Amino acid sequence: LGFCQPITIETLREKHPLLDAVDHERRPNILVTVVLFGEPVRWETNLQLIIDVLLTSGYPGNPYHHESYPHIPVLACNMDLMWVAEAQSPRFGHGTFMVCLENIYKKITGKDLKYEALMGKPSKVTYQYAEYLIRAQAAERQWKQPIQTLYAVGGSAAVSQDDEIDNSWENELASAAAAHCRSVLVCTGVYNPHTEVPLDTRETITDTVFHGHRDFRFDPGLVEPDHIVPDVDAAVDLVFQLENFAP
Asked: Cα 109–110–114 angle (5° rounding)?
């Protein structure tokens, strides 16, 4: 992804072994940016050490300094609260880990955890970047006709409006050119046909139907898919049909 000197949780734990006090079998000063990629295996270790980094301005060997606010930059992606595997019920996703981290930070400091950027679906900049790549591929193939319609295929019909996040760097991407973006919901994900969507968006702060991230503003219209199909294979067939394309 272009990071030249990444410091992982394992690297941090090895450099400061006394900070990881939960696993007794493993017990025995660098300024960083915290990047949250996905849910870890050892939640207690990751939650503890990330809090250490945030409350010491990137020097986890030092005592906590609650006046260090705003904290060092935090970037996060993969914000799905739940995901579906072989189990009968959905499993915790990285979004659940983020909820834990946000609440622990606020419980300790009394302040909200701030994100430099939130990336990945359903972040707006992710869709903008996807269109940017599609246009670049079309240009490489010397397609003369502009792309009018984009199709987004996923297991949860959700696009969010990230008004809370200042993504000023997204201006590096060209403005949207496609006339339409059609959502195709596949039923193999966390989709539940019996879930009711509230009409009053003000209720979504506490309403369990909204599994999106804390910093995304919810709009009921953004969870209504244009098409619903059984699986990805059917989604591809649908796009071919809609575009009158014969593979």
From this structure: 80
The dihedrals phi and psi of 205, each to the nearest 5 degrees, come to -65, -35
Question: How many C-beta neighbours within 10 Å does residue 82 have?
Answer: 15
pTM confidence score: 0.66
Query: Which residue matches tokens 């003369």?
Result: 144
Q: Which amino acid, residue 20?
A: D
Residue-by-residue pLDDT tens, the chain, 247 positions: 788 888 888 888 887 777 776 666 665 544 568 888 888 889 999 999 999 999 998 888 889 987 778 899 999 988 888 888 777 788 888 999 999 999 999 999 999 999 988 888 777 778 888 888 888 898 899 988 888 888 988 876 555 444 444 455 555 565 667 778 888 888 887 666 655 555 554 554 444 456 777 777 666 666 678 888 888 999 999 999 998 888 7
- Pairing assessment for the beta strands 180-186 and 227-229 based on DSSP bridges: parallel
Domain segments of the chain: what residues?
9-118, 138-243
The CA angle 243-228-215, to the nearest 5 degrees, is: 105
Q: Does the domain at residues 9-118 carry the CATH identifier 3.40.50.2300?
A: no
**Which residue is associated with the tokens 């606020």?**
106
CA atoms of 197 and 194, how far apart (whole Å): 10
17-24 CB contacts, 8 Å cutoff, 24+ apart: 19/48, 19/49, 19/52, 19/60, 19/61, 20/45, 20/48, 20/49, 21/48, 22/48
Report the candidate in 7, 72, 10, 79 with the shortest Cα–Cα distance to residue 39: 79
| In contact, 49 and 60? CB cutoff 8 Å | yes
